[in-house]
Amino acid sequence: MDAPLPANTADIPSPALLILWDRVEENLRRMIALAPNPASLRPHLKTHKLPQIVSRLAALGVTKAKCATIAESEMAAAAGATDILLASQLVGPAINRFIALSSKFPGVRFSTIADNETSIRQLSAAATTSHFTIPVFLDIDSGQHRTGIAPGPDAAALYQLIATLPGLTPAGLHAYDGHLHQSDPAERAAACHAAFAPVANLRDALLADGLPVPVIVAGGSPTIPFHAHRPDVESSPGTCVLWDAGYGRKLPDLDFLHAAILLCRVISRPAPNLLCLDLGHKAVASEMPHPRVIFPALPDAVPVMHNEEHLVLESPLASNFPIGTALAGIPWHVCPTVALHDFVHVVHHGSATETVPVIARTRRISC
After folding, report:
1. Phi, psi torsion values for 20, nearest 5 degrees
2. In CA terms, which of 201, 202, 214, 357 is 20 to 30 Å from 245?
3. CA 122, CA 117: separation in Å to the nearest integer?
4. What does the pLDDT read at residue 220?
5. Burial of 122 (0-12, 13-18, 19+ CB in 10 A)
6. Cα separation values, 321 from 82, 274, 301, 317, 366, Å
7. Residue 4: per-residue pLDDT
8. Partner residues linked to 20 by β-bridges
9. Percent of the chain beyond pLDDT 90?
10. Angle of helix 94-104 relative to helix 117-129, nearest 10 degrees?
11. Is 54 within 8 Å of 358 (Cβ atoms)?
12. How far apart are alpha carbons 103 and 99 in whole angstroms?
């Protein structure tokens, strides 16, 4: 696990998020290599939120996308994605925002998910009023118990409702198995296949009833090796584009590179064995227990205190790092870390050569 800093680190204010573009390119190559073809991938964009990566994916033949917010969906459409799934249930004003977004980009296919009759009927009413058709995936709970309906007769009835109501068209099934991240790949594969079997059975039952099930969107980065070669399934990995320390340690079988690096500096040494860094909650995701960031140069560091602007570490190596020393860290959870930064410094060939805004970290772009 390495975290190289660019040659021009001295010119970059900290804390900062660096994107190592050569590693992004390699991660995209490795992701695509796991799939039978680029069309079978629908990467989740919540990890990076950057139009530059969406455009690069489109150039590589990956034109489908999965998003968590309307802003991410708008960013993706403007950057070149042509088939975008908003994998968050639309309620309240979000429904009309979604329709406005779809109208703004008439050449892009936008779809969404639903797991209950109320949402499905509300989508139908809004679509009918707007003389619009919304492709809807039925959201299936394949074991995470966050959203979705369990595969079975009730799920089949909801899918029939999507197929029947005006303004809607059934797009298929959505089954996210984000609870599966066993370190042993054989155990993860077995759990993935077991979670997917009822989803496949539901698809077969729907087809037998004469209902169209164009595709199943399934999984994330941990399960892409198992979903990628299923027929009529689109895999939706996200984290693998940037990778992070959490998945790097939990999933050693997945060979992706750490492409998102946090730059911080020693700003105080309150005791001989303590270092205070300018890397607080506002620069690295803090929803996880420590370690929230891994420092390759400080392998024995123990977090002591974490506040809005400060991270205090205890380390027997502290005396080797004078005030002002730049340190590179790998975030434990990269997705919410990216969302904390207005912009990132993109590193090309060992130097940070451009600064680009993280456009989709906002809740609203225009729609």
Report:
1. -85, 100
2. 357
3. 9
4. 97
5. middle
6. 49, 10, 12, 8, 45
7. 94
8. 347
9. 99
10. 50
11. no
12. 6
Whether residue 229 is predicted with pLDDT greater than 90 in this model: the reply is: no
**pLDDT (0 to 100) of residue 360:** 98
- Residue corresponding to tokens 């993109």: 346
- Beta-carbon contacts of 95 under 8 Å, excluding residues fewer than 6 positions away, are 122, 123, 126
**Are 162 and 138 in contact, with CB atoms under 8 Å apart?**
yes
Residues 6+ apart with CB under 8 A from 128: 166, 167
Quote the CA–CA distance of 288 and 336 in Å, as a whole number: 10
Biggest alpha carbon–alpha carbon distance for the chain:
72
Beta strand pairing call for 343-348 and 302-306: unpaired
Alpha-carbon distances of 158 from 79, 95, 201, rounded to whole Å? 34, 19, 16
Looking at every residue in the chain, the average pLDDT score rounds to 97
Measured distance CA(73)–CA(116) in Å, rounded: 23
Domains of the chain: 9-17+255-361 (2.40.37.20), 25-238 (3.20.20.10)
Per the CB < 8 A criterion, the answer to whether 111 and 86 are in contact is yes
Name the burial class of residue 192, with classes exposed (0-12), middle (13-18) and buried (19+) by CB atoms within 10 angstroms of its CB: buried
CA distances from 235 to 33, 198, 353 (A): 13, 17, 33
Residue 229 amino acid letter: H
CA distances from 24 to 69, 114, 177 (A): 23, 32, 24
